[in-house]
Amino acid sequence: MQLGGSDQSVNNLGLIESGDDDAIRGKGANLTVDNSGTIRGGDRGIRLQDNADNFTLINQASGEIFARRQAVRLDNDDELKNADIKNYGLIESTDGRAIQSRGPGGTVINNGTLRGGEEVVEAREDFTIENHGTIAIRGLGWDAAAGTWSIDGSVATDDEDGVQFASGEADNYGVILGTDDGIDLDEGRVHNHATGVIVSTGSASDPMDGGSGIDVDETFEPTVGDDRAAGPLTIINEGYIEGVRAIGTDEASTSEISIENSGTLRGRSGTAIELGPDQGDSSLLLTGDSEIFGDVVFGGGDDLLALDGLAPGLLIDGTFDGGAGNNSVLFNDYGLSDLLSFDITNDLIDLSFGFTNNNVLSGQFRNFSTWTFSSEDSFSTEELASRFAAPVSAPSTLPLLALGLVGIWAGRARRLG
Fold it and tell me: What is the pLDDT of residues 212-235, one digit of tens each?
């Protein structure tokens, strides 16, 4: 089917099919496709060309769009702007992308299922995606009851991302699964909400041969204009993010990254967050029910680790490493009088806070030089170490505190499991 002029629309209730070509091809501005039936393209399901800016697609709950290559494609040579795609049904490509829109200003709102053999959704700058459904490489699945992912024999063996874009905003309430990265971007904002799951599964043969739940690139690559170093990025996680690293960056990445975590970050490699060695000044704020499985490795900037309103337990199943630079830790809700221990072995600091009812908050740190408490008192590492250097007799409550800590962490692990 050909749409050759502006302001045209298709309302499909049946079947639109093409054997080896595009099922629908549009070349005018302000085109609309409202699909409640089936669109099946041998090559592409829907293809936009020439001056097809401001394209609108509404794929209803009963709608299905299939293709061998891109199920929905906006040709990037035409730099088509402001595509608006809403999916309530199924959009699937067997070998390529479910949605490819490389012009600026695109929007995808998914309440259904998007599946692809390559990057499931690919976009460029000023992109907005809101996911309430499932976005996954074909063959990947998520068991919400068990909190685990699965791979079947139809999965692509190459490293492929769930969502890839240059700049913009991603809000995830659903499930995003990639064999390489869950979300790959240059700059902007990612908010994984409390119901959100973002996972890099790794390859079918080796789950460790993959990427990050969220991966940050070093270079911003726009549709028009020169490439440049990527700008700032904010990541907010209230849900679940997993990968070989939960959050990782390219080795040459230099942008400033701000991370807020009240959910779960799991790094299968033993590293949950890994920033580049020359990463700009970055921060990590831990709040609420934050759980981190694996080390946190900051980059070369002057970095900040802040703790605010955390439940007792282990801060991390690993170590916070500030990396190079002048790095600091801020305890918003904890005073110096709550500090139970501050022990240094070589370059590793074991720190714990003691509270009433035998509750303990503890963690391991290295490469941090400044420690600030809720009273706004700041101390160097050497000053705090000297305060705890003199041997003191252990209060009778300390064995109980240690037992309480083990029990709290074991309970957390069982709940996640």
Answer: 999 999 999 998 889 999 999 999
- Rounded to whole angstroms, the Cα distance separating 13 from 311 reads 53
Pick 261 or 224 by higher pLDDT. 261
Distance, CA of 46 to CA of 299 (rounded, Å): 43
Q: How far apart are alpha carbons 220 and 218 in whole angstroms?
A: 7
2: part of which helix (H) or strand (E)? strand 2-3
Alpha carbons 187 and 14: distance in angstroms, whole number: 41
Q: How many separate domains does the chain show?
A: 1
DSSP per position, 18-48: ESSS-SEEE-STT-EEEESSEEEESS-SEEE
- pLDDT tens per residue, range 70-124: 999 999 877 899 999 999 999 999 999 999 999 999 999 999 999 999 999 999 9
220: β partners: 228
129 within 8 A of 162, measured Cβ to Cβ: no
Place of tokens 């089936």: 38
Query: What's CA 154's distance to the chain center, in Å?
Result: 24
DSSP 357: G
Q: How far apart are CA 251 and CA 249, in angstroms?
A: 6
Taking only the tens place, the pLDDT of each residue in 370-381 is 999 986 789 999
The DSSP call for residue 394 is P
Q: What's phi and psi for 200, nearest 5 deg? A: -100, 115
Let me know: does 323 contact 297? Beta carbons within 8 Å.
yes
> Nearest 5°: CA angle at 411, between 291 and 146?
75
Instruction: Of 130, 120, 118, 124, give the one whose Cα is nearest residue 105.
Output: 124
Angle at 317 between CA 311 and CA 319, to 5 degrees: 105
What are the backbone dihedrals phi and psi of residue 7, each rounded to the nearest 5 degrees, phi first?
Answer: 60, 25
For 23-35, letters b (16+ CB in 10 Å) and e give bbbbbbbbbbbbb
What's the whole-model pTM score?
A: 0.92
Burial of 49 (0-12, 13-18, 19+ CB in 10 A): middle
Structural domain range at position 205:
2-416
